[in-house]
Specification:
Layout lengths: L1 H18 L2 H8 L5 H25 L14 H22 L4 H7 L2 H12 L7 H17 L1 E3 L4 E2 L1 H21 L6 H22 L7 H29 L1 H7 L2 H13 L6 H18 L6
Antiparallel strand pairs: 1-2
């Protein structure tokens, strides 16, 4: 079991690294791709990519013996899809109003949302260290949510990113209830159902379909940052649980921040640097969580 847990930790960190490129590259694509369309193509890319992998695995007889989803898991599956429609819509909207680095760092609030929901609804135990991490991340998120600290004016973009994190916190716990089932099947359902839902919303609100090159870019980003990331995240949840997996996943925002500074050339503010320090401290306590209450 210890070997499985070590492997699960590796998968959680790998999932974090793959997802880290989402905010900075999405920020660039949003100049040409409308918000809801972007969310749609990200999830459709995940579904298409994993469907292709499944076809290749079956043809080469490399498909693993994973349990399929059943009617028993239907409520969690529906919840997962609905939340996966809402979360990227909030995130893409937030990215149009805040910096990619800000959004990347705020993604750490997903730890807070996932852990509190895991405790309140699914009765997962939360250790003292994880509570300290939750407090530090929450305080840092509050700092990042103010456009101007001196006048206490809220950044609407940051609020949208936090709403995305809350949606993903609920979604992580729904997915945790499915983690014993086939990760490939889960990602395919997430991708096609959530992507189709977002695409229909995009058409209803009158968004225009972008050029093929931008569509391909969004689909490719979705395959890597959503499809492969979710695939490895589900494997990690199988042995670590929702709260613990989200703690290891906390490395993702810091990778995202680094990529944002390189790609988007965004200069950090003093308040951003303070929030970054608190996030690093919070992530340290989360990663050192040993489950002791």
């Amino acid at each position: 079991m210890r070997e499985k847990q070590k492997q699960a930790v590796f998968f959680a960190i790998l999932a974090a690294a793959l997802y880290a490129i989402n905010a900075p590259i999405s920020k660039l694509l949003l100049d040409k791709v409308p918000t809801a369309m972007m969310a749609a193509f990200l999830y459709l890319g995940a579904g298409l990519g994993l469907a292709l992998i499944e076809i290749i695995q079956k043809k080469t007889n490399r498909a693993g013996k994973e349990k399929p989803l059943t009617k028993k898991e239907l409520p969690y599956t529906i919840g997962m899809v609905v939340l996966d429609i809402a979360a990227p819509l909030f995130l893409m909207a937030g990215l149009t109003m805040t910096t990619a680095a800000n959004a990347s760092l705020l993604n750490n609030f997903e730890i807070v949302a996932t852990s509190v929901i895991a405790l309140a609804i699914f009765h997962e135990a939360i250790s003292r260290r994880l509570w300290i991490a939750i407090g530090l991340v929450t305080f840092a998120s509050m700092i990042l949510s103010f456009e101007d600290i001196s006048s206490f004016s809220f950044s609407i973009g940051s609020v949208f990113v936090l709403l995305a994190c809350i949606c993903w916190g609920f979604e992580n716990n729904c997915t945790r209830m499915l983690s014993e089932k086939s990760p490939v099947e889960i990602v395919i359902i997430k991708g096609f159902c959530s992507g189709t839902g977002s695409f229909l919303i995009a058409l209803i609100v009158g968004e225009k379909i972008p050029g093929f090159g931008y569509i391909f870019g969004a689909l490719a980003l979705g395959f890597v940052a959503y499809g492969l990331s979710i695939f490895f995240y589900i494997y990690a949840q199988r042995y670590l649980g929702a709260a613990k997996t989200s703690a290891y996943y906390a490395i993702s925002p810091f990778i995202g921040v680094a990529v944002s500074f390189v790609i988007c050339r965004e200069a950090p503010t003093p308040w951003f640097l303070l929030a970054l320090f608190l996030m690093i401290l919070g992530t340290y306590f989360a990663s050192k969580d040993d489950g002791t209450l």
